[in-house]
């Protein structure tokens, strides 16, 4: 009976506890009847120990149950959610160790209050079914929490990039040529880089690349731009250079199978971003930009363009360096997709450092405030496109003051037409015909005022904003997409409560 898994120990312990309490036996009573110590029985019930066969037989006899019933996974209907959780192996997949949580402690919580924990788990499972949440949703949510816990900066990856660059005598100037990285993959890592390798597979056209580990072939999409190609090759080098074994073999994770796979994908992405936007030169560029006398959108774009970076790469690097090197840790990043035909806005990527900031995604189908520069710039881009104007990337700064909290953010936003593979987890048509905006929001405080010389430039628009139209009390808003339904509901409830109070006082 030795060598049992944690899940088996937890379930066995819970069943012993259930039966002991059903018979109104104390630990001392059970210890006297079985000849086992109170401390040993306590560890059994907490899932820390699993008894040998002879002791299982004794427990079954004293608790008046069959040995097989005691050893089975069946726990009764009221503890079914706990059984479902343990049998799913979900606890083992969660990156508890990254957050300093021992799996044994979780087991002890379950063992100490199984009915309450069971009800809580049942609630979580019901919510996940109601909102169509899958295991991978938890992995990506855990990834965001882990990145936020580390301020989205990883010293070991920065050092790995420096070692790699020095070992291969990479030039200081950027951008890096894709052919240079392809040669390194071929010579150092025994890859066969196959341009156009995905062209024969129509169902793969939403992917940038696929790696075949058996043949060590990297099949590339022939429609990649030079920037996309160079970034993807850098990511493959990141997997090898950081020795990341658990990975997705597609360029984007289609379905996360384990947290380590999702985390390693993020680390390889970080490596490629850091490789293409070197730390020292990027910090120097941003220092000059923040110390300029006035806001200059063209200068902001020029930094991105000199590295031939996409907006996503550029903003990824901003979230790496701004908290650590510019002492502005209170920030958020949002990426919006806009479907002009339906005039629908969706957040598909976000990051919040230091705290959860007011603008964030919601899964309740409410309308995001149209006063956010993230949305208004997308609407401007759509208007230009409808007029037949070709637009690649547009930029705008806005000071956004949130009506509910009075907190004010400096928001730097870029908007552009979408590319075919803009989704983090692509489907067959996601991103097609849509536009994309990326926003960096900095909470305006004394640190930001010290670091950004042009913060008070009158050219920067100041707007009062809110989270969603449904929850916004700004009644004279011409941009409103729908009525303030939640505000109205709250006012009706207050009126009822006030009337009830007056009636009870009569």
Oligomeric nature of the chains:
single chain
Q: What's the helix-strand series?
A: HHHHHHHHHHHHEEEHHHHHEEHEEEHEH
Q: What number of domains? A: 3
Number of helices: 20
First and last CA, distance: 71 Å
Runs in which pLDDT lies below 50 for 5 or more consecutive residues are 420-431
Basic shape: globular
Strand content: 5-15%
* Largest beta sheet: strand ordering: 5-4-8-7-6-9
- Indicate the mean pLDDT: 86
How many beta-strand elements? 9
The secondary structure category is alpha+beta
Main beta sheet: 6 strands, mixed
Fraction of residues in helix: 40-55%
Radius of gyration: 28 Å
Explain how this protein is built.
The protein is α+β, with helices and mostly antiparallel strands and 506 residues long. The chain has three domains: 6-133, 434 Repressor (Amino-terminal Domain); 149-276, Orthogonal Bundle (Arc Repressor Mutant, subunit A); 279-469, no CATH class. It is built from 20 helices and nine strands. The strands form two sheets. A six-stranded mixed β-sheet has the order 5-4-8-7-6-9, with helices on both faces. A hairpin with a 4-residue loop joins strand 4 and strand 5. The protein is globular, with a radius of gyration of 28 Å. The chain starts with 5 loop residues before the first helix and ends with a helix. Residues 420-431 have low confidence and may be disordered.
Secondary structure elements and pairings:
Layout: H1 6-22, H2 27-34, H3 38-45, H4 53-62, H5 67-71, H6 80-87, H7 90-93, H8 103-112, H9 114-130, H10 135-149, H11 155-167, H12 178-189, E1 192-194, E2 209-212, E3 217-220, H13 226-241, H14 259-276, H15 279-290, H16 297-306, H17 311-325, E4 331-339, E5 344-353, H18 373-386, E6 394-402, E7 408-417, E8 435-443, H19 446-451, E9 461-465, H20 485-505
Parallel strand pairs: 1-3, 6-9
Antiparallel strand pairs: 2-3, 4-5, 4-8, 6-7, 7-8
Helix pairs in contact: 1-8, 6-9, 10-14, 11-14, 12-13, 13-14
């Amino acid at each position: 009976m030795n060598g049992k898994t944690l899940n088996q120990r937890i379930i066995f312990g819970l069943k012993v506890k259930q039966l002991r309490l059903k018979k109104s036996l104390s630990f001392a009573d059970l210890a006297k009847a079985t000849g086992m110590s109170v401390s040993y029985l306590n560890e059994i019930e907490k899932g820390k120990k699993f008894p040998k066969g002879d002791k299982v037989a004794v427990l079954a006899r004293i608790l008046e149950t069959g040995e097989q019933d005691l050893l089975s996974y069946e726990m009764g209907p009221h503890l079914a959610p706990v059984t479902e959780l343990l049998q799913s192996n979900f606890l083992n997949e969660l990156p508890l160790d990254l957050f300093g949580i021992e799996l044994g402690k979780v087991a002890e919580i379950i063992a100490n209050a199984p009915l309450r924990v069971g009800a809580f788990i049942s609630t979580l499972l019901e919510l996940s079914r109601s909102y169509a949440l899958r295991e991978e949703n938890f992995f990506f949510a855990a990834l965001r929490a882990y990145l936020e816990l580390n301020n989205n900066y990883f010293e070991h990856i920065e050092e790995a990039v420096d070692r790699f660059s020095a070992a291969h005598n990479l030039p200081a100037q950027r951008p890096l040529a894709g052919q240079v990285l392809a040669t390194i993959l071929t010579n150092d890592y025994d890859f066969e880089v196959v341009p156009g390798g995905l062209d024969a597979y129509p169902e793969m056209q939403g992917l940038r690349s696929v790696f075949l580990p058996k043949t060590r072939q990297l099949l590339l999409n022939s429609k990649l731009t030079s920037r996309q190609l160079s970034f993807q090759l850098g990511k493959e080098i990141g997997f090898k250079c950081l020795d990341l074994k658990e990975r997705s073999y597609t360029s984007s994770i289609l379905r996360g199978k384990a947290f380590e796979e999702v985390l390693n994908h993020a680390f390889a992405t970080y490596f490629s971003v850091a490789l293409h936007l070197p730390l020292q030169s990027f910090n120097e560029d941003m220092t000059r930009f923040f110390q300029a006398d006035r806001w200059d959108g063209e200068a902001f774009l020029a930094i991105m363009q000199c590295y031939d970076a996409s907006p996503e790469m550029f903003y990824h690097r901003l979230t790496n360096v701004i908290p650590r090197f510019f002492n502005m840790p209170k920030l958020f990043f949002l990426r919006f997709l806009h479907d002009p035909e339906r005039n629908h806005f969706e957040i598909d990527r976000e990051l919040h450092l230091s705290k959860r900031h007011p603008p964030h995604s919601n899964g309740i189908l409410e309308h995001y405030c149209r006063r956010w520069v993230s949305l208004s710039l997308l609407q401007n881009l759509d208007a230009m496109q409808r007029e037949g104007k070709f637009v690649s990337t547009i930029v705008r700064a806005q000071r956004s003051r949130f009506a509910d909290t009075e907190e004010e953010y400096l928001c730097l936003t870029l908007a552009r037409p979408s590319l075919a593979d803009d989704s983090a987890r692509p489907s067959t048509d996601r991103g097609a015909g849509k536009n994309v905006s990326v926003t960096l929001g900095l909470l305006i405080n004394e640190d930001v005022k010290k670091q950004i010389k042009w913060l008070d430039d009158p050219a920067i628009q100041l707007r009062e904003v809110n989270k969603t139209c449904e929850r916004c009390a700004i009644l004279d808003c011409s941009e409103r997409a729908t009525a303030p339904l939640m505000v109205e509901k709250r006012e009706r409830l207050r009126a009822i409560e006030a009337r009830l109070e007056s009636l009870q006082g009569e």
